[in-house]
Design goal:
This protein is mainly α. Helices cover 73% and strands 0% of the residues. The radius of gyration is 14 Å and the shape is globular.
C-alpha cells in the first residue's frame, strides 16, 4: 500500500505543478506522460492524450455540479477549486484502475 500512496502523492505533485503554471506554459503531454509511466508500472497502458481526456472528464464533473450561471471563470479561486476537484477525481480514477 505504501507504493500506491507514493504514486498517488507523485500524481498529485505532477498535476499541482502543472496547474501552478499559466495556461500557455503548461505541458500537458509531459505531465500526463509521467502519469502514464506510473500507470504502466501497474501493467496499464494509456498515452498522454487519453489521460488528458480522463482528466478533462473529471473536471467536467465539477462544472456539471454547478449551474452554469454560477460559474466564475474569471475568479482564480473558482478555477483553483475546479482544478483541485478534478485532481481528487482523477486520483480516484487511478485507484480504480490499479486495484
Amino acid at each position: 500500500m505504501t507504493i500506491l500512496q507514493d504514486d498517488l502523492y507523485e500524481i498529485t505533485s505532477i498535476l499541482c505543478k502543472t496547474f501552478e503554471l499559466s495556461g500557455i506554459e503548461r505541458n500537458y503531454d509531459d505531465s500526463f506522460g509521467k502519469i502514464g509511466k506510473i500507470l504502466y508500472r501497474y501493467g496499464i497502458n494509456y498515452n498522454p492524450k487519453e489521460l488528458r481526456i480522463v482528466f478533462t472528464l473529471c473536471m467536467q464533473e465539477f462544472f456539471e455540479s454547478i449551474p452554469q450561471e454560477q460559474w466564475k471563470l474569471n475568479d482564480p479561486s473558482f478555477v483553483k477549486n475546479s482544478e483541485k476537484y478534478a485532481i481528487e477525481k482523477f486520483k480516484g480514477w487511478f485507484i480504480e484502475q490499479v486495484t
